[in-house]
């Protein structure tokens, strides 16, 4: 029968950047490039109504802020960060330096060197995403980044206490109460008071994403992120109430979250729709979650799990939950996703907040060619080579000469000729004439 929709998305996710956003961001970047701190302050006043004596928090300010955070919240931050750190350290342990002797006297290798300075953007906006501090700062520090700057915006003119605490406990070397395009531009370009970084990570709104896009090349970035995405693959044993709950848990991120169910059971599909509509009635974030579910929600019935996995790979969703009798099967059946959540005992919210895997993940089909943020993103794998044998240098020189002349690179060829001349006594007329 093929795939059939029980619920079809009313809208298609818009991957194009609004031209107005592009123009505003470019104007802010150009102004900060020309006017530094003065421009940063002007935009912070304009967009966030925030203009303190210093955007950078002093150590005493940080300690005063932490003192205002409930003890249970501090304990929870530390426990979640322990999980993130433990997993990041395990990832780092898999990345090794390499050196091999490919032939006698010829050594090739690579070193994994950390970036010197990184910026971590921790969003505010609708929600204080303090978990983003765990994901960006701890991961950088485990990779060995020497200096990490954290930027987070004030929320409605107020200090986000828990976010500041999370950034501090994660190991941020400097914390700035600064948000939006102005924060990204200041970190990427540098100002009188904010030293330029080499790499910026962290999610954000359309303006933050566009600023990272425009500044990519000036600095490295983690991902070009779009709206949150969630997809559930379910068989006929899956619990529709759990499916509905988990789809809506991600739909509350914003009004444009694709929330998709692919199932082999029409009954599971229909019941999931019914429960989603029922849960939304009393859900505190129903305005956002309901808009996403109405406009971007899909429920698709397929004939087999193989077809479900194949279709899920086409979606290449940021978050993919597997609610089947054998959820680990997805590890072999699927390759396109940001992260997999296997079985009904886990959920995307665990990954978002506390379980230890990174929540900065690819969206807009980018899971087809990249993974999410991890320690490897903060490392530069840099190669080196050394020839210590005269005989080997001469022989490679001969090869280099032939390879280079096949491409009409005479200058390259002559570097090879010279080694063959010096170490193997090969005659080369151009060398003898140049040395006269």
Characterize this entry briefly.
This is Histidinol dehydrogenase. NAD(+) binds at residues 121, 182, 205. By secondary structure, the protein is of the alpha/beta class.
Your description of this structure?
The chain folds into three domains: 186 residues, Nitrogenase molybdenum iron protein domain (Rossmann fold); 146 residues, Nitrogenase molybdenum iron protein domain (Rossmann fold, 3-Layer(aba) Sandwich); 46 residues, no CATH class. The longest helix has 30 residues. The protein is built from 16 helices and 14 strands. The termini are far apart. A hairpin with a 2-residue loop joins strand 2 and strand 3. Helix 3 runs parallel beside helix 4, helix 4 runs parallel beside helix 5 and helix 8 crosses helix 10. It is of the alpha/beta class. One of its GO terms (cellular component) is cytosol. Catalyzes the sequential NAD-dependent oxidations of L-histidinol to L-histidinaldehyde and then to L-histidine. Its EC number is 1.1.1.23.
Question: Helices and strands in order, then pairings?
Answer:
Layout: E1 4-7, H1 19-48, H2 59-67, H3 71-93, E2 98-103, E3 106-114, E4 117-121, H4 131-143, E5 147-152, H5 161-170, E6 174-177, H6 180-189, E7 199-201, H7 206-215, E8 220-221, E9 230-234, H8 240-251, E10 259-263, H9 266-280, H10 286-296, E11 297-301, H11 305-315, E12 319-323, H12 329-333, E13 339-342, H13 348-353, E14 379-387, H14 390-406, H15 410-424, H16 429-434
Helix pairs in contact: 1-6, 1-7, 2-5, 3-4, 3-5, 4-5, 6-7, 8-9, 8-10, 14-15
């Amino acid at each position: 029968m093929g795939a059939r929709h029980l619920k079809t998305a009313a809208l298609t996710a818009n991957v194009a950047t609004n031209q107005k956003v592009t123009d505003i961001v470019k104007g802010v970047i150009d102004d900060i490039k020309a006017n530094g701190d003065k421009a940063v302050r002007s935009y912070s006043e304009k967009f966030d109504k925030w203009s303190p004596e210093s955007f950078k928090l002093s150590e005493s300010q940080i300690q005063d802020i932490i003192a205002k955070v409930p003890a249970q919240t501090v304990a929870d931050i530390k426990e979640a960060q322990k999980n993130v750190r433990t997993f990041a350290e395990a990832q780092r342990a898999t990345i090794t330096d390499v050196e091999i002797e490919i032939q006698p006297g010829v050594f090739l290798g690579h070193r994994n060197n950390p970036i010197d300075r990184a910026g971590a953007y921790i969003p505010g906006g609708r929600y204080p995403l303090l978990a983003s501090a765990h994901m960006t700062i701890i991961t950088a520090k485990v990779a060995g980044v020497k200096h990490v700057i954290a930027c987070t915006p004030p929320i409605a003119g107020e200090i986000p206490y828990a976010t500041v605490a999370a950034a501090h406990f994660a190991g941020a070397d400097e914390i700035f109460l600064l948000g939006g395009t102005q924060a990204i531009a200041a970190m990427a370009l540098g100002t009188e008071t904010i030293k330029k970084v080499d790499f910026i990570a962290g999610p954000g709104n359309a303006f933050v994403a566009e600023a990272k896009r425009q500044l990519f090349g000036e600095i490295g970035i983690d991902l070009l992120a779009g709206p949150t995405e969630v997809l559930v693959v379910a068989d006929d044993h899956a619990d529709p109430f759990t499916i509905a709950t988990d789809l809506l848990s991600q739909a509350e991120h914003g009004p444009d979250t694709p929330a998709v169910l692919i199932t082999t059971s029409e009954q599971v599909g229909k019941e999931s729709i019914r429960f989603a509509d029922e849960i939304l009635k009393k859900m505190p974030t129903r305005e956002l979650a309901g808009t996403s579910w109405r406009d971007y929600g899909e429920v698709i019935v397929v004939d087999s799990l193989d077809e479900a996995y194949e279709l899920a790979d086409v979606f290449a969703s940021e978050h993919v939950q597997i609610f089947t009798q054998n959820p680990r099967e997805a590890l072999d059946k699927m390759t396109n996703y940001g992260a997999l959540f296997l079985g009904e005992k886990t959920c995307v919210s665990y990954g978002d907040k506390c379980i230890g895997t990174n929540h900065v993940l690819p969206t807009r089909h980018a899971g087809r060619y990249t993974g999410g943020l991890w320690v490897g993103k903060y490392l530069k794998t840099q190669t080196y080579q050394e020839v210590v044998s005269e005989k080997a240098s001469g022989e490679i020189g001969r090869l280099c000469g032939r390879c280079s002349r096949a491409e009409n690179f005479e200058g390259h060829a002559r570097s090879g000729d010279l080694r063959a001349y010096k170490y193997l006594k090969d005659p080369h007329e151009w060398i003898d004439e140049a040395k006269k």
